[in-house]
Specification:
A hairpin with a 5-residue loop joins β1 and β2. This protein folds into two domains: 151 residues, no CATH class; 126 residues, Immunoglobulin-like, CATH 2.60.40. It has a four-stranded antiparallel sheet, with no helix packed on it. It is rod-shaped and about 200 Å long. 53% of the residues lie in helices and 24% in strands. 12% of the residues are buried. The protein has 295 residues and is α+β, with helices and mostly antiparallel strands. The protein contains three helices and ten strands.
Length: 295
Amino acid sequence: MTETKSNNGLKVLAGLLGVVLLGVIIYTVSLYQEKKKTEAVLTQEKSLVEADLTSLKSEYDKAILESNATNEELVSARDNIAKYLDSVKTMKADISSLSRYRRQVSVLKAEREQLLKQVDSLKTSNTLIAMQRDSTYVQLEKQTVFNDSLVVQNTQLADAVEKGSALNLTTFNVDAVKERNSGKLVSTSRSKSTDKLKICFTVANNVIAQAGDREFYLEVLDPQGNVLGESYSKTNDNGGSITYSKGTNFYYENQKLDVCDYINKPAGDFQKGNYMVNIYDDGLKLLGNVTFGLK
């Protein structure tokens, strides 16, 4: 009887132990499944954080490439995100760490919005500055063309004034003359009778020429081409030069003016043959020439 009771007690104890073991197994399985579920959630959250950080970094890379000049703030923000991304990839996922990085992602997104607004503002300013610069460049080009045109016009005007103010002759003639005892001069064509050459010319009126003392240069060439007289030399600003017989001075007042001068007999008599007389202004411009012969 006692033995029967003992067996029953063992059976009850074994049943209780079985129930407890079953409960432990069920609890353990439940904990394991919960752990797996939590790990899956954490892994997914970690992937989302990595994706957000990768997206932010890509946006900064794009903004830096589109920026005309390197923006230090953008580069610094991009580098910080890269560091966060590296940390997330290597960290062991847990609720505390992921929550902290989630909050940091929100802060980084707000910072990105602010920085990109500044970049857009700078782009707009740079665009306006570029437009103003281009407009200024166009205006400068136009002004340069206008100035060059003025220089050309002024040069042409100066040339026109210089040409227009030059003196010209209306008449120019040469006479071989003999001086009588009374002092009267009579024309002659004989070389032995000639005492001097009378050279006369008329300067035309010119209202834009500068009034004042002027000097023209007379060049008389004998039949051999030699210069009669003292043979003076004159050189102008352009390097041109002449050898002349005599300089004739007169005062010009913008009105027509008759001028006469004389070339005296050389050491010997005037030679037979053809003579040429050239007349030059004070800039050595040839104003006219006359040829004549002596018998």
